[in-house]
Amino acid sequence: MKRLIAATLSLTLLATAVSPAMAAPYGAGGRDDHHGHKDHHDDRRDPPRRGHKLAHDHRGEYVRDYRHHGLRAPARGQEWRKVDGRYVLIAVATGVIADVVLARR
Prior knowledge:
By secondary structure, the protein is an alpha+beta fold. It has one helix and four strands, in the order αββββ.
């Protein structure tokens, strides 16, 4: 009787240890259905937001006369850009957005 209980218990433990290894790989039928890649959305379609990174190929036009547009002076290493009807203050080196202001003109 003890052998039967021990065998049943060991088979149960073995089955629970093997079942995760035999499960479907991550992303098969789950939320990640891009072959293991993160779900990248097109940042160019989303409005620019503070803290997000502005795509290098979508940095708009450089704003030279920021005072004329009612914008504050950019800090060292930052510049104002006009992107999709908004003035965006970005870090030149990284493209991280520091501020976003709706354009009046």
